[in-house]
Design brief:
The complex is a heterodimer of chains A (349) and B (310). With 349 residues, chain A is of the alpha/beta class. Chain A contains 14 helices and ten strands. In chain B, helix 2 links the parallel strand 2 and strand 3 (63-67). Classes of the chains: A alpha/beta (349), B alpha/beta (310).
């Protein structure tokens, strides 16, 4: 089957959603993070610690694939890293958390609101963002991604200890979440200053880890502050939230947090569409592991099914990967995903 | 150069050891290492606290510990797990593999990865083990206490090690046992203190099924995965075969068997008492027989022959 040509730029396509009109075809957001290093043939660790390489990698990725969103993120622990958490950098993989900063409750004194000019790799993120906005910002939407307060707090404490804290040390958890939220709001301001779209990811809020009751108590209030902040300061930009894994049990408290676009992973897109109604634009959700191991034809078939389920969502539907495109994904599989949006994401005249 | 994973002459016997923080997973593994014969590899994913438990286990000195990156619980991690297991099978070539995922991992998700086609000739899943802390279990197993991970570990286990029973009263022990029975009526539950079990985990499949050694002197326990659905007639043939002693002397049988309509039934046999009830939750098919002189190969054969006739 022939792939129809695009008649809009990526930016025009994405702006159509914001204007409430149908684009020529749906947009496609493969969440390309560390896979971007492949576009310039440098190891992941080198790419994500150098602003020039990080920026060039994502611009080269966009030029190679034509993805409708550039996403600057190497790990969900970036904000935690800038707040004092040590990381282990692996030569050709995503960095991993070293020993948790908050081994004892009183270690919360060690958590700091970062200085965005020098702490962790925040300057790398922000300079890379500036480069991409200058280079291709007129034709594609550039986003800079940060973890939500709940995920950042879990990174500082160690996720399993943090999950137990939700039970045993509630007040302390709220104190920590407030600090992480403050840091996140400042990061959002820095991203907005650079004319990039802030996207918040909150994987530790997955229903695998927290129940709806816990989500309502520990996740919703802080995500709501972030969404409100973007609405108040973003100049009309939508608030975009990604939570990977299984989220369906937590959709009701997620909705209370007032995000405009949900990027979802292990859910049925038809069910998500029914729930989202006219309040939320949906993004998703080709299985990331399939992008790594399946054939382009299989990717096409999976994406087609998802388009059939997601198209017609009142606030719009965007084809995407459920979570990060695995680093070693064959490029032809990313092509297959984006071509599926061209083939199956068209609107009747 | 090591063997190619797909060409190893036998699949690597593998046990998955799940349990929330503080339940005693590391203690359990160290206890097992004392009695397991041959070379053991332990694959650790501590999700943010890499190396701590790995160091403890490594200090036992008889194992290879491989840590895989933590980070996100989804997607890319699955590929990492498959690759790590392939590397262990090729390069370390142990006799036994123990996988200790993060305390907040969903067992069902890890099992899905272990059942990936890429690992079909590489490993053989002998047992899914959940370690629970008897002193916190009742509180933590309340609905909405945590996300899905906590109960998922229990409901997917073949063997539940109820640890720290020395810390609770006999009444609480009984309540824990009752709750576990409600959550997972087919698992074998063993009470321990300091994770000390009388027998080691299997290093070799027992006659076609998983074996957890002996649950009491002389008694055996085998487990198989019944992948094909059984019609009512076939189920009756199966239970008759049990009563006729075709699989050995079965005292107890329990499991979830798939049915042709896509659902499953909970089979329970205690002595001569049989109960078959529809089970509406999504469950992994499995069957456990407890008794003497059990022949798991015959059980597997029964399901194979019924596959041919369906």
């Amino acid at each position: 089957m022939q792939v129809p040509d695009d008649t809009q730029t990526s930016l025009e396509r994405v702006l159509s959603y914001l204007q409430g009109v149908n684009p020529q075809r749906i947009a496609c957001f493969p969440l390309i993070l560390n896979h971007a290093s492949r576009a310039i043939n440098v190891p992941v660790a080198k790419c994500i610690q150098n602003a020039e390489l990080f920026g060039k990698a994502h611009v080269a990725t966009y030029r190679r694939y034509g993805n409708d969103l550039i996403t600057f993120l190497s790990t969900t622990s970036t904000l935690a890293e800038a707040m004092g958490q040590k990381m282990d950098f692996i030569e050709d993989d995503a960095p991993q958390l070293a020993d948790p900063l908050l081994k004892k409750l009183e270690d919360i004194e060690r958590v700091k609101i970062p200085d965005f000019t020098c702490d962790g790799r925040l300057p790398v993120y922000l300079q890379a963002t500036e480069y991409a906005v200058a280079e291709v910002g007129h034709e594609v939407c550039v986003s800079t991604v940060l973890a939500g307060p709940f995920t950042t707090a879990a990174a500082l404490r160690g996720a399993d200890v943090f999950v137990r804290d939700l039970y045993k040390n509630k007040e302390w958890v709220h104190e920590l979440l407030d600090l992480c939220c403050q840091a996140g709001l400042k990061f959002i301001d820095e991203i907005l200053k650079r004319k990039s779209l802030p996207i918040v990811v909150e994987p530790i809020g997955s229903a695998s880890l927290v129940s709806p009751r816990m989500f309502n108590e520990f996740v919703t209030p802080y995500l709501k502050r972030m969404a409100d902040h973007i609405h108040a300061n973003g100049g009309g930009l939508p608030a975009v939230l990604h939570i990977c894994g299984k989220t369906k049990p937590n959709w009701a408290p997620m909705r209370e947090a007032d995000w405009d676009i949900w990027s979802l992973d292990a859910v049925d897109m038809a069910e998500a569409k029914a729930f989202a109604g006219d309040r939320v634009t949906l993004v998703g959700n080709v299985t990331p592991a399939n992008l790594l191991k399946n054939t382009p034809d299989q990717i096409d078939a999976e994406a087609k099914t998802i388009c059939e389920k997601g198209m017609g969502s009142p606030r719009g539907f965007i084809l995407g990967s459920g979570c990060e495109v695995p680093i070693n994904t064959p490029p032809q599989n990313v092509d297959a995903l984006i071509n599926a949006a061209r083939r199956y994401g068209r609107f009747k005249e | 150069m090591g063997l190619m994973a797909g060409k190893t002459s036998f699949a690597l016997g593998t046990s998955l050891v799940c349990g929330f923080l503080g339940a005693g997973k590391t203690t359990f593994i160290m206890e097992q290492l004392k009695s397991t014969r041959g070379r053991t590899a332990v694959l650790v994913n501590e999700f943010g606290v890499l190396g701590i438990d790995g160091s403890l286990i490594r200090s036992a000195g008889v194992v290879n510990v491989v840590e895989i990156p933590g980070g996100c619980i989804c997607c890319s991690q699955q590929a990492g797990l498959v690759e790590s297991i392939q590397t262990i099978a090729e390069e370390i070539q142990p006799d036994v593999l123990l996988i200790e995922p993060s305390g907040i991992a969903e067992a069902s998700e890890v099992i899905k990865v272990l059942e990936d086609e890429a690992l079909s000739d590489v490993i053989r899943l002998d047992a899914v083990i959940a370690i629970v802390d008897a002193s916190t279990f009742l509180e933590f197993s309340e609905p909405e206490a945590f996300g899905a991970f906590f109960l998922d570990q229990v409901t997917n286990a073949d063997l539940i090690v109820v640890n720290k029973t020395d810390l609770v009263s006999p009444t609480e022990r009984q309540r824990v046992a009752q709750r576990l029975l409600e959550l997972n009526p087919v698992a074998l539950a063993v009470e321990t203190a300091f994770c000390r079990m009388e027998t080691p985990l299997p290093s070799k499949r027992k006659k076609g099924g998983r074996s957890f050694g002996k649950s009491e002197p002389g008694m055996e326990c085998v487990s198989i995965t019944p992948e094909i659905p059984l019609s009512e007639d076939q189920l009756e043939k199966f239970t008759s075969a049990i009563y006729q002693g075709k699989f050995g002397q079965v005292f107890r049988a329990k499991g979830f068997l798939p049915t042709p309509d896509g659902g499953s039934v909970n089979l329970q046999i205690v002595g001569r008492t049989l109960s078959v009830t529809p089970f509406y939750e999504e469950v992994r098919p499995r069957l456990i027989l407890i008794g003497y002189n059990l022949d798991g190969e015959q059980v597997s054969e029964f399901f194979k022959s019924n596959r041919k006739s369906t």
